[in-house]
Amino acid sequence: MSDRRRVVVIGVGQLRGNRDKDPARAREPLELVDGAVRAAASDAGVDAEGLAGVDTVGVVQIVSWAHRDAAADVATRIGATGAHTLVSGVGGHQPVHTLAVLADRIASGDAELALLCGGEAQASVDLLGATDDPTTAPGWSRDPGGPGTFSRETGGTERMWDLGLVGPVRIYPLWENRLRADLGQSFARSQEWSAQIYAGFTQVAAGNDAAWNPTPLTPEEIATVGPRNRMICFPYPLRMNALNKVDQAAAVLLASEDAADRLGVPQDRRVHLYAAAEDADCEDVLERPSYGGSAGLGRSLDRALEAAGTTAADLSVVDLYSCFPVVPKLAALHLGLAQDAQLSVTGGLTAFGGPHNDYSTHALVAAVRALRERGGTGLVYANGEYLTKHATVVLGTAPAPSPDFVRVQPSGTPDTVPVDDGWVGELTVETYTVEYDRAGSPARGYVIGATPAGDRCGVRVSRTDTATLDALVDPDAEPVGRTGLVHEVDGRRVFTLATP
Predict the structure, then answer these.
(1) CA-to-CA distance for 209 and 459, rounded, in angstroms?
(2) CA distance 117 to 34
(3) pTM across the whole model
């Protein structure tokens, strides 16, 4: 018989700060986190003495402002001076990953009461023009202070940097364009589907107390390109892109059942963690076997459900990561959910807001609240980097089917395909995107294709090749599957689409 223990969520809290962008009301991320933690403690009915009993603190990496050790700072603020602390790495999967780490510590007996939290103040940082100059943002921490930074490796591999294919806005459209072609959808139908999903998210965000944009929008307002909704990278206009310029924080309190009993948490306030599963695809986007799906995403979803002893058909609450429409599409397709299913109880990373790595901490808050209200079983899926890292958690109001929390970690090496970085010659388009300038014109393109030998090749489209750029964004013609030519211009390889 297992000597591991059940794990329950006993409290959740979140907040939104400085929505009006008032410099006098700007607060650094740790101040926001502190408020969310206090809200989670209040939700659990835990007083200051009980909060000081937290023995493990996990903080999702803060991006908008640099802290030397945010987890230790949070532990000090709540009086949990002897707590084990950890700060996550980079990626939108990190809240669920960190939740799994904390839950595993409780299940194994290494912890009794754990805190997951995170927060960002990107809107206020941008408002203040904050740097490491103390006079710019008085009262903000200076250890070390200043906006956070990412390593070059976070952006992508050297091959991706050389091509310029880095940054979420350029990469996620590659999957959207390929998925549309694989499903045989017209451009109009695919965009309508994306807009319907995101319009639904705005309805959910309108009822979320911490949402950054709580105004419902219609599918037409989301899909129609215009001055307030310019095209960013084809096929995504602004309202289909995650919004990271927000001030938001969230916190989740976890406990063993014994600790919950000692703290007097009522049974109807507890949400049980059943299982979590993590997986990954290869880091180099050019080496991915497919752009119409994600093997790591599928494995994460399947293994979490299997370990929890349930199926997608049994879920009453679902929250799928939504930095761009293709992510919830892929997850929903894999789960076999109806096209009109509610895919978020949070509101999505555009309407609710996308606080860098921390969105899915808010998703956990929303899922717990929804489960308390509806009962049943829920699933939260989080995605990191470029459909690279995947983390899924299954939770519910009934005691776990298994006598303990189950954590499934990645196993094996992600599949890859060979890449020919020097290819010159014929190329068949596998997927593509076109980046637009602020005037609304196609500015540069990226094409990923297959050589006649079957190798992968990534190449740019010159901004001066307006014929190819226009053909790639023609809503009435599908570029995937067409051929073109990779050739050299001024020492750099570029792609020209063949005339049909």
Answers:
(1) 44
(2) 9
(3) 0.96
**Tokens 């776990």 sit on residue:** 400
- 401 vs 416: CA distance, rounded Å: 36
Confidence of residue 109 (pLDDT cuts 50, 70, 90): very high
Alpha-helical segments (H) within 325-424 = 326-335, 359-374
Q: Between vectors from CA 127 to CA 72 and to CA 12, what angle results, nearest 5°?
A: 40
In tens, the pLDDT along 243-281 reads 999 999 999 999 999 999 999 999 999 999 999 999 999
Residues 266, 379 share a domain:
yes
Distances (CA, A) of 159 to 246, 283, 313, 458, 475: 32, 11, 41, 9, 30
Q: By residue range, what is the domain housing residue 445?
A: 425-497
Last residue of a domain, one of 349, 376, 408: 408
What are the pLDDT digits (tens) for 24-38? 899 999 999 999 999
CA–CA distance from 27 to each of 31, 39, 82 (Å)? Answer: 6, 17, 27
What stretches of 88-243 adopt beta strand conformation (E)?
A: 113-121, 231-233, 236-237
Residues in contact with 188: Cβ distance below 8 Å, sequence separation at least 6, in sequence order: 475
Q: Are residues 16 and 82 in the same domain?
A: yes
Kindly state the tokens that stand for 470: 């226009």
What is the spatial distance between Cα 274 and Cα 396, in angstroms, rounded to a whole number? 7
The angle at the Cα of 152, spanning 147 to 157, to the nearest 5 degrees, equals 150
User: Which letter, b or e, does each residue of 146-170 get, where b requires 16 or more Cβ atoms within 10 Å of its Cβ?
Assistant: bebeeeeeeebbeebeebebbebbb
CA nearest 259: which of 78, 112, 116?
A: 112
Please tell me the total number of residues recorded for the chain in this structure: 500
Residues 6+ apart with CB under 8 A from 41: 11, 13, 47, 48, 50, 51, 253
3: its two tokens: 């000597």
454 and 397 assigned to the same domain? no
